[in-house]
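Extended Data, panel c. Modelled sequence:
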Amino acid sequence: MKILRCPVCGELLEKEEKRYCCSRGHSFDRARQGYVNLLQSQRSSKRNHGDDKEMVTARREFLEQGYYEPLRRLLVEKVYFYTVPNGVIADAGCGEGWYTEGVAAKMPVATVIGFDISKEALKWAAKRQGMDHLAVASCYEMPLADGSVDGLLNFFSPLAAEEYARVLKPGGHLFRAVPGDCHLWELKSAVYETPKPNRPEPEELPGLTLLERCPIQDEITLKNNREILSLFQMTPYYYRTSPADQAKLKSYQTLTTRTEFTLLIYEKK
């Protein structure tokens, strides 16, 4: 099945053993890790895009411990309920693929696609099971045809609502995770003198109707300093925090903190 679209001319791409190519002769080599680069702006830039190796490693190590497993189980349950078994499921900002792999395992006959602008993240995603296509691409300009996707994941990645509405089929669904007000409150309290609640995310999206709002709360206890630092490094707070405040966490060997998420489910009418 041809799913990906050529970023140069818009024609559908044929997946071959070592490359993707379209009928107009545009060709994109697959990296040895298994992903293809369809982000055109990277051709003329040596600057890294997306999450760096440190952040990707931290997130992978933390997620593999299973602390966010309740959220992944909820996602898998909802995708399975709303999406046809042989549908097309795309993850816009798949990272290293932990959430995507969970969905793929539950939906073995679906076509699963992962996009991210971080090559470092896709190197790890390519090692996971069930990934049919992996591509370096922006969620603001996905190499997908209009109305081609049955289920779309937006898990802690930038929100590109108009683009999501474009690629979803009529009756297709968006599964979006956002942090709650007090998500990781105790972790933030260990770092900042005056921690602030997370800003509420806008829930109304153009072209999409909100069907379900599923809050999920938990409390996790991190067992060692490496887990604590991994959790902090995978958050957006890390790179906005001074070295002095970052260093405060080095004295912690255990930490118990709240987790708060909301899974929002939308339908394209």
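The chain has eight helices and eleven strands. This feature is highlighted in the accompanying rendering.
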